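## Example record

The block below lists the input lines for one assembly entry, exactly as stored, with component labels intact.
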Amino acid sequence: MKSLRQLAEISGSEVQGDEQLQISGVATLQNAREGQISFLSNPKYRKQLETTHAAAVILSPKLAADYSGNALINNDPYLAFAKIVNLFHAPEAPQANRHPSALVAADASIGENVAIGANVVIDSGVEIGANSKIGAGTVIGENTRIAAGALVHANVSIYPDIQIGKNVIIHSGAVIGSDGFGFALQADKSWYKIHQVGSVIIGDDVEIGANTSIDRGALEATLIGNGVKLDNQIQIAHNVHIDDHTIIAGAVGIAGSTTIGKRCQIGGAVGIAGHLAIADDVIITGKSMVISSIKEAGVYSSGIAAEENRKWRRNAARFRHLDEMAKQLKELQNIAKQNRNNQNLASD
Amino acid sequence: MKSLRQLAEISGSEVQGDEQLQISGVATLQNAREGQISFLSNPKYRKQLETTHAAAVILSPKLAADYSGNALINNDPYLAFAKIVNLFHAPEAPQANRHPSALVAADASIGENVAIGANVVIDSGVEIGANSKIGAGTVIGENTRIAAGALVHANVSIYPDIQIGKNVIIHSGAVIGSDGFGFALQADKSWYKIHQVGSVIIGDDVEIGANTSIDRGALEATLIGNGVKLDNQIQIAHNVHIDDHTIIAGAVGIAGSTTIGKRCQIGGAVGIAGHLAIADDVIITGKSMVISSIKEAGVYSSGIAAEENRKWRRNAARFRHLDEMAKQLKELQNIAKQNRNNQNLASD
Amino acid sequence: MKSLRQLAEISGSEVQGDEQLQISGVATLQNAREGQISFLSNPKYRKQLETTHAAAVILSPKLAADYSGNALINNDPYLAFAKIVNLFHAPEAPQANRHPSALVAADASIGENVAIGANVVIDSGVEIGANSKIGAGTVIGENTRIAAGALVHANVSIYPDIQIGKNVIIHSGAVIGSDGFGFALQADKSWYKIHQVGSVIIGDDVEIGANTSIDRGALEATLIGNGVKLDNQIQIAHNVHIDDHTIIAGAVGIAGSTTIGKRCQIGGAVGIAGHLAIADDVIITGKSMVISSIKEAGVYSSGIAAEENRKWRRNAARFRHLDEMAKQLKELQNIAKQNRNNQNLASD
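Predicted C-alpha cells for the full assembly:
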C-alpha cells in the first residue's frame, strides 16, 4: 500500500484530490478495481475515463482539468505510470545461488550475488558481473564477458568472445554472436565461407528480445550502443552499428555493415538494406523498406495499407503499368500545351 | 493395412470401386506406390491423376465422375485425407516417464502419464496436466500451468505465471511470456523500462510453431483463443488478443494491444500495427501491411508482386511522383471539361 | 606470420611489391594496423585505399595499376581475401570429447573425433559422422542422421528422422524438422491437424543461420540441396525444395511446396508464396513479394523505398485510386484522339 502522496513523489506528479488515498496496485482503466491506480496517455482510450473504477488516474494537466476524481497530474502520464508500476512490481534482486546442475568452467569468473539457473553452461574464461541472473539452459561461450546487473533469461545462446555491458536484459531464444553471413562466390558457382572473426560489443542498459539474433562481425565487431532496446525476432547482421538509445520493434531485419544513429525509432517489420547510414533521430514507420541512406532526422515511411482484395487487385495491376501511365500523362500535357499555344496564336 | 471400406467410414466418404482393396499407407499422387492412397484437392495438380500409381484416390464427386480407378468420394478430399493420414500415423500416447536428468521442482504438480525429457527444467509451483509430453531442454518457469494433453517439443522456453489450455502443441524454439516491449521516453532521451506484469493465457487445442514468440501483457494478459494455430517465426506483442480458431501463417508480426477476431486467416509475413481491431472472419493475404482496423469480414490485401527488376525500377520511381501525377491528371481533366464547355457554348 | 608470396599462392594471386613482406593477420582497410593485409572489393570504399595502414592490399588488376603499395592482384579480391582470412583463422578440428553431462543414447552411433558439448541430448538411433562438433544444449531426435564434419552450435533443436549431409554448419536456435503447418477446415470452423509425416533432407556443405526454422514435409521431405546457405530468422515451410548453391538472406519466408532452383540469390525479408516454382539463377532483391512462379533467370524485385513520411502519405493515398486514375487517363486519351480526328477532318 502506498499513499497517493507517495506515488506523486516517486513519479514527480502533483496530487489532485485525496493525498492520503491508499493505492494497492496498478491496472488499466478498463479493468482497474478498487484501490488501484491507472493512467490515460493514448487519447483513443479517453472514453474509459468515464467508466473506470480506478481509485486514481494519472493524467496530463489538460485532461485532469476535466476530471473530478483523484488524480496524479503529470506532463508525461505514461512515464509516471511506468515508475509506479515498477514500484509495485520491482524485480527481485538476484541472490547468490548456483543450481547444482549448472556447469561453470573452473576458470570462469563469477561476481557476487549471481544466480545461475539449472543446466546453465558457462565456458572457460567467461566473466559474469555481480548481481546478475542467468536463466536455465543458457549457454555462454568461451571468454565472453558480461558486466554487472545482467538478467539473461532461459535458453539464450551467447557465442564465445562477446562483450556485454551493464544491466543488460536478454530474453529467451536470443542468439548473440552467430556467424555473419559472408560467402564469396567461386568459379564453380559454389559459395566459399568467410570465417567471421569479429565479435559483438553490446553497451549498458540494452534489452534484447526473444528469438532475436545478432551476428558477430566479419573482422571487427557488430556494435550495439548504450540504452538500445531491441524487440523480439529481430535480425542484426554482421558489422551493423546501432548507436545509443535507438529502439527497434519486432521482426526488423538490418543487413550487413549498416549504421544506425542515436535515438532512432524503427517500427516493426522494417527492412534495412546493407551498407547504409541512418542519421540520428530518424523515425521509420512499420514495414518500411529502406534501401538508401537517410541523412536527416525525420519520419520516413513506405508501404501500402491493406485494402479490400478486389480493389487491391485492380490497383496493384495498374502499378505494373505506372511508368507507361506517366508517359501517357506527359504526352497529354504536351498536347494540352500545344493546343493552348495554338489558341494563343489564333487569338493574337 | 486397412480396407477402402474402413477408410471410407473413418473419413465419411463413399467408396467408388473395390471396397475390399487393402491400403497400406498414404502418399502424394506423384509418389504413391502400390497399395497407397492419395488425394486431389488443388486442381493445379489434376494432371497427376492420369499418371499416379496410387491404389486409390480421394476425390470430390465432380472429379470422381471422370476417374475410373478406385476412389473415396468426399466433398472435402483434403479433410478426408487428413483423417486417413492420422489413422496411419497416429502419434503415440505419452507414457509416464521422467528422464533422470530432468529437474522437476519438489512442489510441481505432474499429472498421470506425463513424459518428461532429458534436461527439462520445471520450476516451483508448475502444474502439468495428464498425458503430456515435455521435450528435452524445455524450461518452464514458476507457477506456469499447462493443462492435459500438451505436446511441448525440445528447447521451448515458457516464462513464469503462464496459463496454457488442453491439448496444446508447442514447437522447438518457441518463447512464451517474454516481456512486452514497453518503454517510456525520458527527458534525457533514454528509455525507461515498464515492467511487464501481465501474463499469457492460451486456450485449448492451440498449436504454436517453431521460434514463435508471444510476449506477456503489460498489466493484463496476452490472450490466444481456443483452436488458434500459429505457424513458425511469428511475433505476438503484449496485450494482443487472438480469438478462437484464427490461423496465422509464418513470419507474421502483430504489434501491441491489437485484437483479432474469430476464424481469421492471416497469410505469411503480414504485419499488423498496434491498437487495431480486426473483425471475425477476416482473411488477410500474405505480406500485407495492416495499419487500420478492419471492421467487416472479407479478404484484404496489399503489396506489389515482384516483377523484372528493370520494370520495377521504372514503376517504383514513378510511384514517388504519384501525387504529382494525380494533380496533373486533374488539371488535364479540367482543361478537357473547359474545352467541352467552350464547344458547347460555341455550338449554342 | 606468412609472407606475401605464401598468401599469393594460397589465394591464387600475383604479388605486386615485396614478396617477402611478412603478414601477421587480416583487417579492414579502415582499421588495418602494421603487418596486416586488407582488401578492396566494394568500390564504395575506394577512398580508404589512400589512408589505410594495411601492409598490403588485395586488389583487382585495374585498381592495382593505380596503387603503389604492396598488393596481391586477383580478379576476385573478395574470394582471395576469404581464403587468407581462413588461413589465419582456421577453425580448430574437433577432438574426440564427450562432456560428462551429455546424454547420448546407448544405441546412437558416434563417429571418430566427435566433440559433444555439455547437456547435449542425442536420442536413440541417431548417427553423428566423424569430425563433428555438437554444441551445448543441442537436442537431436531419434534416428536423425548427421554426416561427417558437422558443426552444430549450442541450443539447436533437430527433430527425429532428419537427414543431414556432410560439413553442415547449424547455428544456435535453429529448428529443423518441426511440423509443417497443415490443417484442414472442419464444418464447425475448427482446424483439423494433419500429422506431418515427412522428413527434412539436407545436402552437403549447407549452412543454416541462427533461429532459422525448417519444417518437415507433410508426406515426403522438405529438401535443402548441396551448398545451400541460409541466413538467420528464415522460415522454410513443408515440402519446399531448395536446389544446390542457392543463398538466402535473413528473415525470408518461403511458403509450402514451393521449389527454388539452383544458384538463386534471395535478398533479406523476401516473402515467397506457396506452390510456386522459381527457376535456376534467379536473383530476388530484398523485401520483394513473390506471388507467382518465375520461369526465367534474371533479377526480380518489388517494394517501394521509404521516403519522407509526408510525401509517402500523399503518394500512398493516391495508390488506392490508381485504377480510377488509369481510367481517367484513358478517357483523356480518347478525347485527345477524338480532337485530333476532328481537326484532321476539319483540315481535309
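The helical segments of chain C are 4-11, 48-51, 61-65, 77-88, 309-319, 322-347. The radius of gyration of chain C is 27 Å.
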